[in-house]
Amino acid sequence: MNRKPFIDVCFTPTLFSLFDVSESIVVVIDVLRATSSMCIAFEYGANQIVPVKTVEESLAYKQKGFLIGAERHGEMVDGFDIGNSPFSYMEPKIKGANIALTTTNGTQAINVASVAHKVVIGSFLNLSALCDYLINENRDVVCLCSGWKNSFNLEDTLLAGAIAKKLENNFNLSDHRDSTIAAKLLCENAQNNFYVFLNDSSHRKRLADLHIDEDVKFCLEADKTKCVPYLSGNALIV
Ligand code: 3SL
After folding, report:
1. How confident is the model at residue 29, as a pLDDT?
2. FRET partner for 171 with CA separation of 20 to 30 A, picked from 8, 34, 60, 69?
3. Ligand 1, closest atom to CA 32?
4. Could you tell me the CATH number of the domain that includes residue 38?
């Protein structure tokens, strides 16, 4: 490529049709908690994760010998093997497992992104490895924030801003639109204290009601894994 590649930020899946991603890498982001848990699943040896839209689709994978995961309203759906806590992917049963997973926003966003040249999974937990990969690929990038039910959220935009900061020497942040600059400013405003910055955020409040603040703290930690999961066919692999 003769020019610097672009990094764009799409704040919600509903805006995604504005982006031409046929030649771009899309980084799907759902910091709390789907894409964080996926990165940890691969760190703990998962073989593949099939992101599906509905609880019924996930259930159907049981007969194929998959571990089945489903989150709705932040909680594991009854009758499933796993939910969406990163800690539930740190168990021995994850090693070598084929997993089917549906979550409220994250797995939906992955399906929306699947028209892209390539889809990769982003979280704070794999931030440096992800950015090294993107710099190495030298291709246009769109960070797709999963948000909450198609609305903007702070935590996904924070990570998009953190990615933009790491890529700013190698990528063009601002010629297309202002969303990347906005995400970067938001991230700078947080001054690396993401947990405090997100104190009033809607999803932190939702998860606090479920008493899973440890999940939030963990998902905001940087560089716990070098895994950069990507979509191959209908499954995420590393
Ligand atoms: O929306 C999602 O995909 C989930 O990550 C939401 S939750 O954190 O499990 O509530």
Report:
1. 98
2. 34
3. 8
4. 3.90.1560.10
Q: How far is CA 222 from the centre of its chain?
A: 14
Is residue 37 domain-resident?
yes
The CB of 180 under 6 Å from ligand 1? The reply is: no
Kindly calculate the radius of gyration of the chain based on its CA atoms and give it in whole angstroms.
Answer: 17
Does the global pTM surpass 0.90? Answer: yes
Give the amino acid at 113.
A
User: What string of pLDDT tens digits covers the 238 residues of the chain?
Assistant: 889 999 999 999 999 999 999 999 999 999 999 999 999 999 999 999 999 999 999 999 999 999 999 999 999 999 999 999 999 999 999 999 999 999 999 999 999 999 999 999 999 999 999 999 999 999 999 999 999 999 999 999 999 999 999 999 999 998 878 999 999 999 999 999 999 999 999 998 898 888 889 999 999 999 999 999 999 999 999 9
Any bridge partners for residue 143, and if so which? 9, 27
Name the residue at shortest CA distance from atom 10 of ligand 1: 74
Are 23 and 140 a contacting pair, CB within 8 Å?
yes
Q: Cα–Cα distances in Å, from 238 out to 16, 24, 119?
A: 25, 19, 12
189 domain-assigned? yes
Q: What domain range is 111 assigned to?
A: 7-237
DSSP characters for 182-232?
HHHHHHHHHTT-HHHHTTT-HHHHHHHHTT-HHHHHHHT-S-S-----EEE
Q: Which residues contact 188 (CB under 8 A, 6 or more apart)?
A: 161, 165
Does residue 148 sit in helix, strand or coil? strand
